[in-house]
Design brief:
Elements lengths: L2 H16 L33 E6 L3 E6 L8 E5 L3 E4 L19 E2 L7 E2 L2 H23 L5 H13 L6 H13 L19 H5 L11 E5 L8 E7 L7 E2 L5 E6 L2 E6 L10 E2 L10 H10 L7 H4 L15 H23 L5 H20 L2
Parallel strand pairs: 9-12
Antiparallel strand pairs: 1-2, 3-11, 4-8, 5-6, 7-8, 10-11
Helix pairs in contact: 2-3, 8-9
Length: 369
């Protein structure tokens, strides 16, 4: 460097040292996709489309049907859970209130079992439920209880408004129990199915058992890798019966679960969702075992005809021995190619012939598959 360049660099360095240091503030929350909008909301079921209807039968109990023809891709419902809880394994990476991933977590002022993405979420959680659970959560963690227990505790806190309205809730549940029509329980009081009211959680089908606590899966898109983030209580979505080949697709959006039509759904046809892995990834016997744990049965075509899984289907199966041999030969070819590039002056004729033999054998093996 010339002397002028050195002096110029010194001047720039002094200016840089004398100027105030500005650090870009990272975003506390990642930008997630907004919840989809329902084109024509249902008057009786505010969180659902007008194409969705709650029906009742002796065989299926309360379930969801289409009251008009539904096209693929239509948004059937966008439901906010009555109650949800983040799994303990995610409390330091995701907000305990809104579940958004955060890079600057704000802990609770009284415990280390929750953290939030903002003061707004922190205050909202404290006002709704955490003021009560904060005092007992650490004690309960000593017993290594199932995480469902903590969701149940939060549900009780929210349903009674932190214990202030336990007598009103008791009276409401007694009124529900006196109603002999199971298909009309959701219409008590205002005639609407409100997914954010506890009475619609209370009147879920009896075969739910502990399985009505659903693990919600969500990722960046429907095709991306999904992860278990927390437990939720969903009133309306839980009325959709199971099918191993459902006509809907689910997607989680921060604070709502959206249900899309995967296939054309005719008027009067039942709307299904999935509670165990699809038939393409799990065989019938394993699916039946998981369904029996939930006291559920599936009558979809893949179950009736015992369709094979994707990996066992003849059109996808490949002879393992030939594939393993092809992979081994490909590795040898790469190794030989490295030798060619590194040591060409030493013995190019022999190595070149070896590469040609490897390549010809590999092409022959792959062409048969």
């Amino acid at each position: 460097m010339s002397r002028n360049e050195i002096n110029r660099s010194k001047i720039e360095l002094k200016q840089l040292m004398s100027s105030p240091c500005t650090v870009a503030k990272p975003k506390a929350q990642s930008e997630l996709l907004p919840s989809p909008k329902i084109l024509v909301p249902n008057l009786k079921i505010p969180c659902a489309s007008d194409a969705v209807e709650i029906a009742y039968s002796q065989k299926y109990g309360r379930h969801l049907i289409a009251n008009q023809k539904i096209k693929p891709g239509e948004v059937l419902l966008v439901e906010k859970p009555f109650c949800k809880r983040l799994l303990f394994q995610n409390i330091y990476t995701h907000c305990s209130n809104c579940w958004q991933p955060s890079y600057a977590m704000i802990p609770c002022k009284s415990c280390v079992n929750v953290a939030y993405c903002s003061e707004t979420c922190k205050d909202k959680a404290w006002d709704n439920y955490h003021e009560v659970e904060c005092t007992v959560m650490g004690f309960l963690l000593c017993f290594e209880l199932n995480e469902d227990i903590f969701l149940t505790m939060r549900m009780a806190i929210m349903a009674t408004q932190k214990g202030k309205k336990i007598h009103l809730l008791k009276q409401e549940l007694m009124t529900i129990d006196q109603n002999t029509g199971p298909h009309t329980k959701e219409n008590i009081n205002d005639g609407k199915f409100c997914n954010e009211q506890y009475r619609n959680i209370y009147t879920l089908p009896n075969n739910v058992g502990s399985s009505f606590v659903l693990k919600q899966l969500f990722g960046a898109s429907c095709c991306s890798t999904s992860y278990d983030h927390g437990l939720t209580l969903l009133a309306l979505c839980r009325l959709a019966n199971h099918s191993c080949d459902p006509n809907t697709i689910e997607q989680w959006y921060t604070d709502h679960l959206a249900l899309y039509a995967a296939y054309p759904i005719e008027k009067g046809e039942q709307i299904f969702r999935i509670y165990v892995p699809r038939y393409i990834v799990m065989d019938k016997s394993k699916r039946r075992g998981r369904l029996q744990d939930r006291n559920l049965m599936c009558e979809c075509i893949p179950c009736k005809e015992d369709w094979p899984t994707l990996v066992t289907h003849c059109s996808y199966k490949k002879p393992c021995s030939e594939l393993d041999m092809a992979v081994t030969m490909l590795k040898d070819l790469y190794a030989a190619a490295d030798i060619v590039y590194d040591y060409v002056p030493v013995n190019p004729p022999g190595i070149t012939i070896q590469c040609s033999v490897f390549y010809a054998s590999l092409q022959h093996t792959l062409s048969k598959n």
